[in-house]
Amino acid sequence: MRTRFAPSPTGLLHIGGVRTALFCWLYARRHGGAFVLRVEDTDRERSTDEAVRVILEGMAWLGLNPDEGPFYQTRRYDRYREVIGDWLASGKAYHCYCSKEELDTMRAEQQARGDKPRYDGRCRHGKPKVEGVSPVVRFKNPGEGEVVVNDAVHGRVVFQNKELDDLIIQRSDGNPTYNFCVVVDDYDMAITHVIRGDDHLNNTPRQLNMLRAMVGEGGAVPVYAHLPMILGPDGAKLSKRHGAVSVLEYEREGFLPEALLNYLARLGWSHGDQEFFTLEEMVELFDIEDVNTSASAINPDKLAWLNQQHMLVADETRLADMLRVQLTAMGITPALEGPNLVAIVACQKERSKTLREMAMASRFFFEAPQVYEEKAAKKHLAPEGQAALLAVAAALELLADWSPLAIHEALNGLAAAQGVGLGKLAQPVRVAVSGGGVSPPIDATLAILGRSETLARLTRAATNA
RNA sequence: GUCCCUGUCGUCUAGAGGCCCAGGACCCCACCCUUUCAAGGUGGCGACACGGGUUCGAAUCCCGUCAGGGACGCCA
After folding, report:
1. Straight-line distance from CA A301 to C1' B40, in Å?
2. Which residue among A116, A240, A302, A378 is the active-site one?
3. Chain B, protein-covered positions (CB within 7 A)
């Protein structure tokens, strides 16, 4: 059992590609097979090193590690030439001397007639060779009969050979083309399951015809599984304008790889009513038979929700490391003797959707507020609030044990003594310490901040009118 | 234009003829909990594209219509 993920490095690896890679990977893991990574870079014009980097880095970040590869098609040209030579010699392929202009007019005429534009095979049927023109090579597609694709997700799909034409397998500059390379590679790499995007369903009959030319009658061909497309949040095809960003952008924004994977798995696949899956569960439960057939739009809110769900159960030390990265990106360098990152994670994870959000909400632990949020200050740092701050500072100064519990009891005691609710004390403190009206529970917040920093911020806010 | 694919709440989906006057999740709203914000809990809003069949019975099967997407390239 062998699957492959075969991206072309002509654009950034985005969610759609990642979902395909995930399903290939899951299927291989589930069945104890191999997952092969192959970079389809035969389009020299548009392939970039940057795109290759994103593919490799992105997959590594997600843990979608290939068992074999990456293989690069541009390094397999000798093999492609060999096959083309064989086919030319055995009459499975032929040279075509038609110029681009000639082909353009042919297509235009066909379209004007309402026909499907397709090469009419004139060079196959005795059109004389043109001197001084370097020819392309075309594959002789069967003219009759039908090609049946038994697709694992779409079921039986039938194409008529007369809808197809003799496709170019080698350009006039000698470079082989995509549909041909795919066939040679899938054959050479002994791929048993071709899992890829829906947009390739139409290519499959051509590839099947060429594959049969390779394996001969009765030879084994892979199982095909065409996944439904992923659309942007607005339902439009994924593109730069419609939600297509590099997968690495999700890392920068502070998403957990397992959350992204969980989200992507649920696009086009489901297991009853279950929404939350660990990686292990996905491997155990995933099956290509359960993949559905219709395209789906990405929903950023649901991704964010799932990310939080995964943060809630993730190892806090690991999250602390990720939080550190986010803080650093914001220009904050957490000191060893400063606020404890694990403690911050513990109280912030249930109030953050991403680690980036967590970092932004935690900035005040590292930097005293420069200004107080206007509305919050007006409400809580009025003379009455400032008096409360002084009282709290006095109580905390004497505290023997600087722990959340001790702080909690001290504040409760003070509130009881003053005959007010805890909120009357907590809110002014929150504003004094964080600069705004929102923070984790005040006891945990102060415990993390430390006594001297807490007292400094309290007195500053109390005296700063 | 031709061929192919697809069509259940706004979105992701469950549903393989009766369990469905359609279930879950995100979003939104309300309430509970509560020191803020959250998290959590409870409840609410909300869909079988349309029209014909088949059947005692259809979201599920068949046909048509409409709508969306894809392919038709010396791109992948």
Report:
1. 19
2. A240
3. 1-8, 10-15, 23-27, 35-40, 69-76
Please check the confidence at residue A462 and state whether its pLDDT lies above 90. Answer: no
Q: Check if the beta carbon of residue A174 is closer than 8 Å to that of residue A95.
A: no
Tokens read off for A369:
């507020």
Strands A193-197 vs A168-170: parallel, antiparallel or unpaired: unpaired
For A326 and B9, how far is CA from C1' in angstroms? 37
Q: What is the mean pLDDT of residues A269-280?
A: 95
Q: For A299-325, write each residue's pLDDT tens digit.
A: 999 999 999 999 999 999 999 999 999
Q: What DSSP letter does each residue of A306-324 carry, written as one string?
A: HHHHHHHHS-HHHHHHHHH
Q: Please list the helix, strand and coil fractions of chain A in percent, rounded to the nearest 5, in that order.
A: 50, 10, 35
Active-site residue, A240 included: yes
Q: Please choose, from the candidates A4, A168, A205, the residue with its C-alpha nearest in 3D space to the C-alpha of residue A87.
A: A168
Predicted TM-score (pTM) of this structure: 0.93
**Nearest residue to B25 (CA, C1')?**
A275
Distance from residue A6's CA to nucleotide B75's C1', rounded to whole Å: 15
